Amino acid sequence: MAEWIGIGRRARRCYGFDEIALVPGAQTVNPNEVDASFEFMGKKFKIPIFAAAMDGVVDVKFAIEMSRLGGLAVLNLDGIQTRYENPDEVLEDISRATPQKATELIQTVYTTPIKEKLITKRIAEIKKAKAMAIVSCIPANAEKFSRLAIAAGADIFVIQSTVTTIKHLSTQYKTLDLIKFCKSLKIPVILGNCVTYETTLELMETGASGLLIGVGPGAACTTRGVLGIGVPQVTATVDAAGARDFYFKRTGKYISIITDGGMNRGGDICKAFACGADAVMIGSSFARAKEAPGRGFHWGMATSHVNLPRGTRIQVGTTGTLKDILLGPAKVDDGSQNILGALKTSMGSLGASTLREMHDVEIIIAPSIQTEGKIFQVGQRVGMGK
User: Fold this and answer.
1) Which of the four CATH numbers 3.10.420.10, 3.30.930.10, 3.20.20.70, 3.40.50.300 does domain 20-385 have?
2) What's the half-sphere exposure (Cβ side, CA atoms, 13 Å) at 43?
3) pTM for the whole thing?
4) Coil vs helix vs strand at 62
5) pLDDT for 15-31, tens place per residue?
6) 68-88 burial code (b ≥16 CB/10 A, e <16)
């Protein structure tokens, strides 16, 4: 697979969503009769999509609505919701900041200490509405925050960092023992993020119930530019799915693969499932919802880093309700609304009755898939030309 890039050095070719296409098979299925549900730890969710733990995407109200519609939304315990009694004032300030001042303001906003009582309060508000409470934090806060979260009734706990490995070396602070942590928790744990076969396999040994796949593909993330690291999501997902299948054959335990980032329309999500994802996590698409707290703005999880921001604030606008984005009817022409309808229609066209069957559809390398025959859309900046 690798090609020579210079004397004594080879590199393998990796692929992103814009470089592949899915091939219709020998049969088709009525889209109304396909099953696009996601099963996780014995529970079935109608929508196999997580809303990312970003402050411009998920707050308590958004999490409740996402749960009501059948999906999952992750609340950031390191974010604005747990630092401020009235986060709306802060979110309004961020939305009004100029592009030149936005990162500096976000850095300042996140220096306010996290209040433990707000962790308990936010989760309790979600549970009071009988919604799924899924929460996330960085590894350094996991032990303390997980105790608070479980006591408040959290259903799933997510540990998330730019790159997660079992072997994290440091002489400056105590590292989190992921194996011990996962086995001690009484609720499912999702770990992220990773992009390689070997690391995915090692993280499965921790006892985690799911893994987030993706480094740097998010719309507001600048990790790839700042650090030069990452693997395009098609290759990362295929490799992670291969590790999942090998682990399942060896142990009988099926660990969910959740492709995280790089998807902004229905076709990207369909491709992620074809590459082997069990679910996907998206942020910018949901930041466009009327229910999203970002007021049409979206920023990366590492934008607030005081020394080396690895994210930026972007304007995505507000295009419709969360229901429009998830279930339609779509009022825009670019595939960013009714994404569940797009997934079901794609499944039907590919002859896949379930998401597991999507894992077996034919994938081709097709760099012209976005531009072939689309000259008028590109020229007029409509549809696929936006």
Assistant:
1) 3.20.20.70
2) 14
3) 0.94
4) helix
5) 999 999 999 989 999 99
6) ebbbbbbbbbbbbbbbbeebe
